[in-house]
């Protein structure tokens, strides 16, 4: 008997449905990597993971701090005295010292231009949990949130799956560097109303995932004005706030609420330490709401996804160390900037352009010239070549709901310099092969499909199985499923 699917009556409709959004190439690519991960010596032909927005460039700084501060950890002989208090304590308000430190950190990340009230900080299991929590607070099943596209693929799961809130994409295009326009927002809002869908708000990721760009002050102001006029909410996912590596500076909605006359009850920030500190495993997510009712209700809901008090205890000390935080933020941004420069220059050398960006752990790569045809079928065909033959897990734009085929998100901060160099070499080979084919087409006039043969390994059909691996999907770790795959 099938564990899932065969007799879906055994499970709830929610569990049996595929509305988790994980059946997309974004997650398939992770599975391809998990099946055959690159290793410089043990598996040099393996797939290089460029589909994971992880910041692994500054771990040395954090490890150094941990070694110098044994008291901060309850699992050292210096810190074990605090063990009992931390082990028994779990209040869903969070440790006061943790909330104080996080509030200070959030202010620093935003250049010290704004302050945050520790009593408005609500904890959640990563930004994943924070995004779902805020949806549960603001919308009923069937209500909708507008979201500028391209957008983070897991929003479909995090914001919609369990809450039953609809996401209505507002298409942004390359002609203006994918900037959201108020005109497009108004149209999306009106279309929803005509379809009898209640729009409860707008959610944005600023800095953007996948674009790596930040929203300018004027646009943010007009968004705040728009939601104020319509009396709907604005949720700003600022998870990448400290990944800015060059101008322009990041402008947070928390600055704009100080400048624009608006009803603050409508403004909510989602934050996390997964990207800015590179700690996704710690599952530190934050909802910061200016609305008292949301803070109160969010606290109750947060009991389903608290941050462990052990993690709170450690981070309270680390984030309260201002000297460390200042050094970390400056150094992390410098390293991300260098990485971005090396990677984009390498791509430029082979004629590949990326959207100009100033933030994030990835580039939005323009592979439109390499498509056999300017369609999403053409994009998927190229993606298969990249994953099967070039052996890079990059994420196709369609999985971000991009309306133009040919864009790919490629992550550059989750690997060492050598692996990055190998990925650039592989991309060089891809472009070389494509140019060679172009010359052949010119000579014999026939259009060919881009196909490479870098390795004899072929894409495993299991990649498209329903049990897809993701850092947020526990299924493949289950012994039952492992026995089947
Ligand atoms: C825009 C955005 N929001 C939320 C998340 C989820 O982050 P977390 O690991 O803190 O749950 C991500 C992760 O990639 C993201 O890019």
From TrEMBL:
<dbReference type="InterPro" id="IPR050478">
    <property type="entry name" value="Ethylene_sulfur-biosynth"/>
</dbReference>
<keyword id="KW-0663">Pyridoxal phosphate</keyword>
<dbReference type="Pfam" id="PF00155">
    <property type="entry name" value="Aminotran_1_2"/>
</dbReference>
<dbReference type="InterPro" id="IPR004839">
    <property type="entry name" value="Aminotransferase_I/II_large"/>
</dbReference>
<dbReference type="InterPro" id="IPR015422">
    <property type="entry name" value="PyrdxlP-dep_Trfase_small"/>
</dbReference>
<dbReference type="GO" id="GO:0008483">
    <property type="term" value="F:transaminase activity"/>
</dbReference>
<dbReference type="InterPro" id="IPR015424">
    <property type="entry name" value="PyrdxlP-dep_Trfase"/>
</dbReference>
<dbReference type="GO" id="GO:0016847">
    <property type="term" value="F:1-aminocyclopropane-1-carboxylate synthase activity"/>
</dbReference>
<comment type="similarity">
    <text>Belongs to the class-I pyridoxal-phosphate-dependent aminotransferase family.</text>
</comment>
<dbReference type="GO" id="GO:0030170">
    <property type="term" value="F:pyridoxal phosphate binding"/>
</dbReference>
<dbReference type="InterPro" id="IPR004838">
    <property type="entry name" value="NHTrfase_class1_PyrdxlP-BS"/>
</dbReference>
<dbReference type="InterPro" id="IPR015421">
    <property type="entry name" value="PyrdxlP-dep_Trfase_major"/>
</dbReference>
<feature type="domain" description="Aminotransferase class I/classII large">
    <location>
        <begin position="48"/>
        <end position="427"/>
    </location>
</feature>
<protein>
    <submittedName>
        <fullName>1-aminocyclopropane-1-carboxylate synthase 1</fullName>
    </submittedName>
</protein>
